[in-house]
Amino acid sequence: MTTRQDREGTEPRAPQVVPVRHEWLTLPNAISVLRLVGVPVFLWLILAHQDGAALVVLMVSGVSDYLDGKIARRFGLVSRVGQYLDPIADRLYIASTLFGLAWREFIPWWLVLVLVARDAFIAGMYPVVRVYRLPLPPVHYIGKAATFNLLYAFPLVLLGHGDSLVAQVAQPVAWAFVWWGTALYWIGGVIYAHQIADLVRQRRAQYRAVAG
Question: For a designed S-S bond to 42, which of 57, 109, 153, 167 qualifies (C-beta 3.0 to 4.6 A apart)?
């Protein structure tokens, strides 16, 4: 016979997080929504060869990505909506930027495939999360570093397209961010998979304890 303490001991451990609000109308969420609005704007600008304006949109996106998280943590405005909205905005910006830059032949299409494959790898774990009713692991700092590198790499890639002195300086820096971001993006994905596997093992142990 299993006791209540035994069952609790095998419950998958949800990571400790800061208090989460249930309000959706907060300043960090408003910033994330503005980033989402900027996605089609950037795509239109880059495909229309309005590179200067597209660069401004990308730079504003990178700064806003830093600000919304900073404001949320500093003023206790972390919300459930924001926990979903912020990564969605990041992924859409990365996807739209990859497509736009590859369409303009600023980056190779194989790089797009490498990064999209990582997101597909993560998405493939969602059915497991739903079946076992697992808590979502927190975003690892490596994943945050990967997103940071990529969000700052793409404006530099765009700035590095040309023959000016600024472009010559920006180009190697941009590609350093790209390679580091791509590597960290996949490392973060592997860490996420390991976290999910660990939670699955704990959930299965719980099921066996209850059945026994």
Answer: 57
